[in-house]
Amino acid sequence: MTDPDRFSDSSPWGALRPRGWGGLWLKVARSFPGGWPWSRLALLARRVSRRALSGPVDTRVWGLRLRFFPDRSVSEARILFLPRSWDRAERRLLGEWAAAPGFTFVDVGANVGGYAFWVLSRLGDSGRIVAVEPNPPLARQLRYNVRQNGAGDRVRVVDAAVGAERGAGRLAVGSRNSGENRLLGAAEASAGGGVPVRVLTLADVVEQAGLDRIDCLKVDVEGREAEVIQPYLTTEPREAWPRYLIVELKEPSAGGPLRGAAEPPAARAGAASQPDARVSPAALEEWLTARGYARVLRTKLNGLFRLA
Fold it and tell me: Fewer Cβ atoms within 10 A, N terminus or C terminus of the chain?
């Protein structure tokens, strides 16, 4: 469990600097350049370092002051130990896009904020970031790291899930990987379990944040990406659509059957759960292509798209 005192202002950044053998091997892991074969050597150093580190540690990543856990989630450990290699291809393109004046980035399923903080490190003074994360401990950690960098005027943290319908839902939290959180479908939610969370639509997030546009939308919600994207692109005018999309396109491991990319129902208020059938990654990409999004990059996990 996350110690709440670790993410309060009574525990300032720098109080948990990694020391001893764990800190030494952390430096070794981060000394290698990104890419093959250096990433393999960095992974070996990470394995040694993690044995000597426990609890959160303070570190500088991309010029920012961040507090991360070495072993709570896969992405968190990779950002901490291998910041040059983590989602390298995605970050290269996103860094180019974020250089535009007034760049607005919406991160749905922000987790510990890897993408949000990368954009922050490249963002001009006029840019804005909205990081949406439903898991309460992760949202608290996000807010802490935003405060430690004095970025509250540019980064807004929203503690909610995003789905096809506004209302209340339940979140399944990964027991071994805090990044594997997903909104339960109707049948699963009715059976109990999970953490109660509020559910917003993407249109709700945009309206409540006071955004006049989205330059880039990133969605990683463990197989329910279509429930975030499709209602927004169906109900909102084209000029409000994100210019760029970063969408996780891996096949989900659990959570109900897959379906084709049929037109989604319009979002409505008061819904208590999300649909059980999910759109397959291939069908979602086909649906996006039909609406003018051209894929510019495909990695192992993600598809990156530009609106024609």
Answer: N
Phi-psi region of 270 (alpha: psi -120 to 50; beta: other; left: phi over 0): left
Question: What type of residue is 23?
Answer: G
Exposed / middle / buried, residue 16 (Cβ in 10 Å: 0-12, 13-18, 19+): middle
- In this prediction, residues 64-74 reach a mean pLDDT of 90
Q: How many CA atoms lie within 13 A of 118 on its CB side?
A: 26
Evaluate if pTM is beyond 0.85: yes
Could you tell me where the DSSP H helices lie in 250-303? 281-290
Q: How far apart are CA 104 and CA 115, in angstroms?
A: 13
Contact between 62 and 95 (Cβ < 8 Å): no
Helix H or strand E segment including 287:
helix 281-290
What pLDDT score was predicted for residue 5? 79
Task: Show the tokens assigned to 287.
Answer: 């649906």
Residue with tokens 């291998």: 82
pLDDT of 267 strictly over 60: no
* 127-171 tens-digit pLDDT: 999 999 999 999 999 999 999 999 999 999 999 999 999 999 999
Element (H, E) at 157: strand 155-158
Please state, rounded to an integer, the average pLDDT across all residues of the chain. Answer: 88
Class of domain 88-307: alpha beta
Residues of each domain in the chain carrying CATH 3.40.50.150: 88-307
The b/e string for 64-75 (b: 16+ C-beta within 10 A; e otherwise) is bbbbbbbbbbeb
What is the Cα gyration radius of the chain? 19
